[in-house]
């Protein structure tokens, strides 16, 4: 799949600023093929070359539907309900693929023992 990133228009950025005053102009782009917004630094080419193995676990959900709860449940199941280890921030235990695909923030483990991660990316990606 080809990825065509388009900057947001001034009016689109103004609407986002109405919702989130901390928004910085130019920090989001629209992916033409899907219409979704992504951080400008998102590495779409890296996503295309991301290798998935049989022992990888992904939680794929739309935003605001209980993702955090599901991540916690899946992590606990995969780690034999280790409540002590679960005290580590979920961001590090169950990273988002989107965060890892930012050019300067590779947070997914490099070992191939099997990774667990979460994403709000749609299946077309």
- Quaternary structure type: single chain
The tally of beta strands, per DSSP, is: 5
Largest sheet entry = 3 strands, antiparallel
How many separate domains?
Answer: 2
What is the share of helical residues? 25-40%
Largest sheet, order of strands side by side? Answer: 1-2-3
Question: Could you characterize what this model shows?
Answer:
The protein has 125 residues and is of the alpha+beta class. It folds into two domains: 1-40, no CATH class; 51-125, no CATH class. Helices cover 28% and strands 14% of the residues. The protein contains five helices and five strands. It has helices at 10-19, 44-48, 67-78, 90-93, 97-100; strands spanning 5-7, 28-31, 37-39, 57-60, 116-119. The strands form two sheets. A three-stranded antiparallel beta sheet has the order 1-2-3, with no helix packed on it. The longest helix is centred in the middle third of the chain and has 12 residues, at 67-78. It is globular and about 50 Å long. The termini are close together.
Helix-strand layout with pairing:
Elements: E1 5-7, H1 10-19, E2 28-31, E3 37-39, H2 44-48, E4 57-60, H3 67-78, H4 90-93, H5 97-100, E5 116-119
Give a brief description.
This protein is α+β, with helices and mostly antiparallel strands. It has helices spanning 10-19, 44-48, 67-78, 90-93, 97-100; strands at residues 5-7, 28-31, 37-39, 57-60, 116-119.
């Amino acid at each position: 799949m080809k990825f065509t990133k388009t900057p947001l228009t001034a009016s689109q950025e103004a609407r986002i600023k109405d919702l989130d005053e901390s928004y910085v102009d130019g920090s989001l782009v629209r992916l033409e093929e899907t219409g979704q917004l992504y951080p400008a630094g998102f590495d779409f080419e890296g996503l295309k070359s991301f290798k998935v193995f049989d022992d990888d676990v992904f939680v794929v959900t739309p935003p605001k539907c209980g993702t955090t709860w599901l991540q916690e449940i899946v992590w606990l199941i995969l780690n034999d309900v280790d409540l002590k280890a679960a005290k580590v921030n979920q961001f590090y235990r169950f990273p988002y693929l989107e965060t890892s695909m930012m050019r300067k923030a590779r947070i997914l483990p490099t070992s191939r023992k099997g990774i667990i991660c979460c994403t709000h990316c749609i299946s077309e990606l």
